[in-house]
Amino acid sequence: MKKSLIVAAASATLCFANVALAATDQFSDVPAKHWAYDAVSKLAQAGIVSGYDDGSFQGERTLTRYQMAEIVANAMTKTDKATAENKALIDKLSAEFADELRALGKRVDAVEKKQGPLTIDGFAQYRYEYTKNPRLIAEDLGLAAPGAAGRADDKSASRTLLWLNIANEFDGDTYFHGILGVETLGGRTNVTSLQAWEANFNKKIGAHAEVGLGRFFPSLGFGTISGAPYMDGGKLSFGKAVKVNFYSVRLGDRSEITTSNPSGIFAHRTYNLGDVKFSLDQNTDMAVSFAQDKHKEMYNSAAVGLKYKGISDVVLDGEWGRNTADFAKTANGGSAPEAYFIRAKYKGANPFVVGSTGYSVQYKYAEPGFDALAFASPFAWNAPLNYTTVALGGIADNLKGFEVGFEATLAKRTIFNMRYDKLDRVKASAQSLATHDDQSFFTAQVTYIF
């Protein structure tokens, strides 16, 4: 299926962009008694739609406008199978969710079109970061080559990102998905990083399974453990009510990391990654995930998380993980490091509703060594570039404290987001890049979706 920019931003939970929140949380919920649910149920019974995102339609579950638009977009490709009554339902739904459909790159005014050409959409972002006590970065310790987008060893830095999402559906069962990112670090260098963060080919198998091959940016669980960009290999996904994702990929081009050769930070490692996601009830989602490198040196992690949406306009979520890899235990003084976050979000900035706002508060805790390479999701573990070199994701490593956040839609498709993290170092560690007790930072960004 065709992936939109916003789908990509949500699935790339480690994305360099550090977009404010996962896309499905940026869209307001469709009220439980909205007429669209009955309309979609009728289309599902008629075999016109099979569901949203993962191919499922769970009639008892409240959907966001984004998820509902995915269902409508699916229906719009199958009007040749629809009766006159069902076509009228599709037309009514497409009018209701027109803005969301445009953001997904779907044709609203030509529902008979079954397959579009190559599509390119994305976003542009300007981001400011202030880090009270910059961490040592990997290149300072000889652990990595200088980052292509520049260094961030000053207290303040600005970043500009252009993200392009590329999608093409070859037929009803085969599609390509790619992400190109161009990022610069302002005020320090004019060096620009142009990278292919994803480039994969995917084949659907039956109604609820697919295989993929190429470059992936894995998104696991609720973000405490995840994958990095530039992971090349294969993916297997299957399931409907219970969704399973598994990746077997390779990362890096340096020699093996050993006590005598610490510079092999990425180490040509093979990683096995995966998660299982399902709903406990109509308001509660659960995820179990894992990440492991071949020799269990840096990552041998597992995590479990919950998300609850049973309170009006509020989302509560949290996740706990543990890493038993050798390096992780060494960095934490011999015991396996743990990490967890607990977060509450009130409302959210809908990119199609000017003036809509959202607020969040989060407590985060991560012991040294849990996430030494910064593979966590920036949605769950926001961090400045300085803290996340070389992987440039989020980071769940040697920090504890609170984060408060605010976001607002300034203009249609334009979201402002800022977050302040009042953090401390969990403990001093010879292997940690955190050299100060105060780990506080501030980030602010403007994102334009196109």
TrEMBL record:
The keyword Signal applies. Keywords: Signal. Pfam families: SLH. Residues 1-22 form the signal peptide. It comes from the Bacteria. The keyword Signal applies. InterPro entries: Cell_Envelope_Struct_Comp, SLH_dom. Residues 23-86 form the SLH domain. This is S-layer homology domain protein. It comes from Sporomusa termitida.
